[in-house]
Amino acid sequence: MQKNDFIPAVLVGSLIPVFPDPYHPEKYGGTFQTVNFWEWLAKKLYEVYSGVELRLGMKRQHELAIEPATALILANSGRTFDYSVELGCGLGGFGSILQNYCHHLVGVDINPAFLKFAEKTNCYTQLVLEDVRDYVFPDVADSIFMFETIEHLSKEDGLQLIEDSGNRYVMISTPAQFFSDYRTHHVSLWTANDFYSLGFDVWVISGSNVDILLAVRDKNV
User: Fold this and answer.
1) Rounded to the nearest 5°, which phi and psi values hold at 4?
2) Cα gap 144→162, rounded to integer Å
3) Of 4, 40, 66, 214, which residue is the least packed, with the fewest Cβ within 10 Å?
4) Which of 28, 130, 142, 43 is CA-nearest to residue 88?
5) CATH code for the domain of 173
6) Which among 2, 30, 33 is positioned nearest to 16, based on CA atoms?
7) d(CA 119, CA 91)
8) CB 197 within 8 A of CB 170
């Protein structure tokens, strides 16, 4: 069996060490599954997206790696959601994935210009202009998604959002490194152990321009 054949299994939680040069877990503050993603992505991208337009000009390299990883995890979980909230939806780049698993998808962002782009994707049932720290989860919401958002909040605010999510399904992606330049405006750094302590399973998506932690908590499993 070829190395690439193992990648979907690793994405859905296999602990089998299948790569010859895994990253050192202490680099990210914990032990987790390592996905050397970019080589496999080149071959599988269009299959994963099932013909959805990629809008490459609006996406950064690491975002293109996160999206198919998200799709594979959700597809292999067998889960669909009645009412989902994406906090910090930005331009709506992840909506094309989430709409396949979320019957009612709400995007929340503080930037009105971003929401105009998100509206054009036609992926969201509703878009809300609000600071994610002030957003109150509807009682009917059963799933929360945060892609490249939590690092823009203080650790205290991020922990509060996770606490407020209660028993809902939660998926969070965040860079495994801290960037504080004018383009990124990162405020906090999250490690694998941070997420483990909160009951999450953690993967790292590597091979793009920056390694990404992808954390999932499903209390109903």
Assistant:
1) -65, -25
2) 9
3) 4
4) 130
5) 3.40.50.150
6) 33
7) 8
8) no
Which amino acid, 125? T
Q: How far is residue 11's CA from residue 148's CA, in Å, rounded to a whole number?
A: 19
3 state DSSP class of 17 = coil
Question: Comparing 102 with 76, which gets the higher pLDDT?
Answer: 102
- In total, the chain counts a number of residues equal to 221
Using one digit for the tens of pLDDT, what is the confidence trace for 186-208? 889 999 999 999 999 998 887 55
Structure tokens that stand for 2 in this block: 């070829």
- Measure the CA–CA gap between 67 and 45, rounded to whole angstroms: 9
Residue 63's pLDDT is 66
Reduce the DSSP state of residue 98 to 3 states and report it: helix
DSSP letter, residue 4: G
Question: How many distinct structural domains can be found in the chain?
Answer: 1
What's the token pair of residue 66? 């996160």
CA 66 – CA 97 distance, rounded (Å): 10
Q: What is the pLDDT of residue 16?
A: 29
CB 203 within 8 A of CB 176: no
Say which range, 16-25, 90-99, 148-157, has the weakest mean pLDDT. Answer: 16-25
SS3 47: helix
Q: 144 in helix, strand or coil?
A: strand
Q: What is the pTM of this model?
A: 0.73
